[in-house]
Structures are given as C-alpha cells and as structure tokens.
Amino acid sequence: MLLHAQTSGPPWTSEHTRFVDALLQNEGSCEISVDWTRYAYEDGDHFTDVGAAAFCEDLVQAVLVRCGANRRLWILSDSTIGHNDYDAVHGEWTGAASARIAAQLRAAGVEATVDAVCGSGFAAMSSEGEHFAARIAARRRGAVAPPDAVLFIGGWNDEGRRADQLGLAISGACRAARACLR
To answer: pLDDT tens-digit profile of 62-105?
Structure first.
C-alpha cells in the first residue's frame, strides 16, 4: 500500500502542490488528509516542538485508519519530520521527532521505520542521492524488513522542477516503493 500526506492544503495550496497530490493519486497512493493550519510553526514552514507533537498524534491516527495495526510501515519524509530531529539549541541531530512517531506507532501495533532528510523530496536532493527513490533502494539493500506500506511526506522541496521531471521522479519513487512491499 502506498500512502502520502496531502501536500496541497493551506498554507501551501498551489498549482505545484495540487500537481504533486494528483500525480501520487494517479500512481495509486492513498492520500492522508492533513489540516496543516492546526499546527504551531516556528518559521512558517517548520513545526515547533508542540506542533510536531500534535502532527505526530494526528499522523498515527491517520495511519491506523488507513492501514490498521499489525503492519510494517516505512515513512519517507522531508523536514516535515526531519526539522524536529535536530536540537535547535545545539544544532545536533537527535532523531527525536522520528523516534516519537516510531514509538507511538509501535505502541499502536505498527512497526515503523522513519527516514527523514531535510530538503529532500521526490526529485529534490537527487544529486546527493537523498531523494525518496534512492532512500527506498538503500533500505531494500539494507537489513530493514520489507514493509506492508510506504508513506511519503514531502513534495514541497520539489517546487520549481519541470512537470515532466517531477512526474518521472514521483513515478520512480512509487515504483521503488511498490517493488519492496511484502
């Protein structure tokens, strides 16, 4: 099962985000609706710790509705999760937001692996090998057990990509995700 967090919603509703959501739906991904206006942001784009905690709770509930328990889930995210994986005071990676989501999902019966890289997306960071399809491929080669579902949280960092490039990148990420499902 492929899932994606809705990218087109206030405050990010745009032609680009509507296109991202449409491409993902055309690939058979099920959209998880998100009310992005209900979270606290520190800079207009990234959650405060309180906002990240609220998003985590909502995400866990949405995943349970879509997937149910007793599942294995891979989550690929950009700074939606990754930003709060860093200690804002010391600038060090702690993995706190990823760990919170994984722990809450685990408590609900979903074994989750969270892979969050700030600045990444379907095409964004492809030159660094950190785009979604490359990270799925790396997980497949690693010791991580195959998932029942893959959840994409991202697409905003792909703003400015040509439509054909973005279409190919989303198609490639979805193809890679489908290939690793058990």
So the answer is: 999 988 877 899 999 999 999 999 987 888 999 999 999 999 99
Measuring CA to CA, how many Å separate 89 from each of 98, 154, 156? Answer: 18, 25, 26
DSSP helix, strand, coil percent of the chain (3-state; round to 5): 50, 20, 35
Neighbours of 10 (CB within 10 A): 8
Rounded CA separation 181/171 (Å): 16
Closest to 181 measured CA to CA, from 155, 150, 159: 150
Which 8-state DSSP code applies to residue 107? H
DSSP 86: E
**What strands lie across the sheet with 71-77, from one edge to the other?**
30-32, 2-5, 149-153, 71-77, 110-116
pTM metric for this prediction: 0.95
Q: What is the SS3 assignment for 57?
A: helix
Q: How many CB atoms lie within 10 A of CB 84?
A: 27
Distance of CA 78 to the CA centre of its chain: 6
Q: CB atoms < 10 A from the CB of 178, how many? A: 15
Helices 15-26 + 163-180 axis angle, to 10: 40
